[in-house]
C-alpha cells in the first residue's frame, strides 16, 4: 500500500505566498531551469516537510540520478557545516574551523558536474538551516562564477516561499 502525499493546499489567507511561489518557480527566469530545480529540491529537503517536497516535485519534476547525487552531496554536507560554522562564530577557538576538521572530502574529490547548481543547493539549505556563514560563502562563490544578483535573489525568494509553504502546511495540520 503506498501513501499519497498531498502538496500544500493554499487558502485565501495564504494567496500572497502562493502567488510568490508560482512567480519565482515558473515565471521569473533569472535562474536557469537546472539551477532552479536543484535549489528548490534542496530547500524542500531542508524544510523536512513531505507536502513541500510534493509541491516541488509537482512543479519542477522528479530528480534524475545524477541530480540526486549532487543534491545529496550539497544537503548532507550542509547538515554538518551549517551548525559547525554557526557555532564557531559564537566561540573563539584556536583549533579546527576548516572543512578538513570535519573530514569532508574536497570539492574536487566529490566531482560535482554542475558547480553552480551545487552552490545554489547549498544556499537554499543554509537559508533554511540558518547557516549564514555557509550561506555567505556559497553566495560569494555564485557571484565569482558569474551569477547575477537577480538570479541569487530569485533563489532567496524561492527558498523563502518554500519556507512559507512549510508554515502553511503546518498550520493546516493544527488549525
Automatic annotation (TrEMBL):
SUPFAM superfamilies: AhpD-like. It comes from the Bacteria. InterPro entries: AhpD-like. This is Alkyl hydroperoxide reductase subunit D. The lineage of its organism: Bacteria, Pseudomonadati, Pseudomonadota, Gammaproteobacteria, Oceanospirillales.
